[in-house]
Design a protein that fits this description.
- It is a single chain.
- The protein contains 14 helices and no strands.
- The protein is an all-alpha fold.
- α12 crosses α14 (384-417).
Length: 418
């Protein structure tokens, strides 16, 4: 028996998008009639975003196409519909909307990264790295979304009205991150070809904005980008000595941690030691080391634990150290693998990676506690609300540390190039 593949024409997709926009308007009216602020605000924002494809096409000549426009509009409609009660009453509804929304975020991350790869001669992002970047980008923005929901809850409590964005508990927040990961995997594994044309279009628009890539100004710009990141690793004798002192100290911490039975912290410190040793081993020269300042920043939480300093082991300092390690990873990927990054792309990598690592660490602790009976996150004596609040502050620290570290590193790159 011969089967026919269902085909939906671009015209039918556009009609479906318009119907979904009308439905969002209907939900907006419901929000007005019921005086439900969360429904009203989410409907207004969703409706405004549905017009973004038309704006991009009109003002920037970036045509998302009927299919992707429908994809975005459907995600916005389902989210707005969920504010009427489906999020709380239908157990699987939140998982579906987060997965669908995550596919859009993942596709956006891919388009931005691939467009940068095509636009700049100083950027090269192989397919394997692109897969990882899509996951990091999606998870990082997933953590940022949880921060927005948490901030909305705090603001609503202070002002005395219902929150515009709603969190449904610890398990819900962590499951959101899991389903964000699922959406990212779907796009990274199967969906990038469907949006590749957008990356090419965006690259072309950037070329038009900056001028032809054959101009001398563009060539100088690319040389500046390459040189400034290549120069992070140093061969100075003083820097090498200080870096080796820090690396030796961290190695002793690893040995002491293993002897004391603190295996997991020892593994994390050992990872920093390995990153510190990579340049010298790769160049077969002990003078080639990372800047001692970067190693010191990455070591601050370790120093806090060793010397019992609560300030150095605090959340903000810990996640600034994570951001520093992310920068080290970006630099070593650039130097020792086919991956090539410019400073601004390295900063983007640092920001999303810092938040993504926080999300992975949170979900990992939660799953280990559930299935192995540990107490890494689910601490006895604390309520779910207390644990969730503590976790949300971790997310806030990671988001703030990623952004601040990105700004600091970007300034450092600029000063080094001057």
């Amino acid at each position: 028996m011969e089967t026919r593949r269902l085909r939906v024409s671009p015209r039918q997709q556009r009609v479906a998008s318009r119907l979904l926009q009308v439905a969002i308007v209907g939900i907006l009216v419901v929000g007005l009639l019921t005086r439900n602020l969360s429904v009203l605000v989410n409907a207004v924002l969703a409706l405004a975003i549905t017009f973004l494809p038309a704006v991009l096409k009109r003002d920037y000549r970036i045509n998302l196409g009927a299919g992707i426009t429908l994809w975005i509009t459907l995600a916005l409609f389902l989210h707005t519909l969920g504010m009427l009660g489906f999020y709380g009453e239908v157990w699987w509804y939140d998982h579906v909307t987060h997965t669908l929304s995550a596919t859009i975020i993942a596709a956006s991350g891919y388009v931005v990264a691939r467009a940068a790869d095509e636009w700049s001669d100083a950027i090269s992002l192989p397919s394997r790295f692109m897969f990882v970047f899509i996951l990091l980008f999606t998870l990082g923005l997933g953590v940022f979304w949880e921060v927005l929901e948490f901030a909305a809850r705090i603001g609503a409590n202070l002002l005395g009205f219902a929150p515009v964005l709603v969190q449904y508990g610890l398990d819900d927040s962590l499951l959101d991150l899991l389903f964000n990961t699922l959406g990212a995997v779907i796009v990274a594994g199967f969906g990038t070809q469907r949006v590749s044309y957008l990356a090419e279009t965006l690259s072309n628009r950037l070329d038009e904005y900056r001028g032809s890539r054959r101009t001398q100004a563009r060539a100088n710009h690319n040389r500046f980008e390459t040189t400034s990141l290549d120069g992070v690793v140093r061969t100075e004798t003083v820097n090498a000595r200080l870096s080796w002192v820090l690396t030796s100290f961290l190695s002793l911490v690893v040995v002491g941690g293993v002897v004391a039975g603190a295996v997991l912290p020892s593994v994390l410190v050992a990872a920093v030691v390995v990153l510190a040793l990579v340049p010298g081993v790769a160049y077969r020269d002990p003078r080639v080391m990372l800047p001692w300042q970067l190693l010191l920043l990455a070591s601050l939480p370790i120093l806090g634990a060793v010397f019992a300093s609560p300030w150095l082991a605090s959340g903000p300092v810990t996640y600034f150290a994570v951001a520093t390690i992310a920068l080290v990873v970006a630099v070593e990927l650039h130097l020792f693998t086919p991956v090539q990054m410019t400073p601004w792309f390295a900063v983007l990598f640092v920001v999303v990676t810092t938040m993504a690592v926080t999300g992975v660490w949170a979900v990992g602790r939660w799953l280990v506690d559930l299935y192995l009976g540990t107490e890494l996150l689910l601490v006895p004596g604390l309520t779910d609300t207390q644990i969730e609040t503590g976790l949300m502050w971790e997310f806030v620290y990671s988001a703030a540390a990623g952004v601040v570290a990105g700004l600091v590193f970007e300034r450092g790159f600029r000063r080094r190039s001057e």
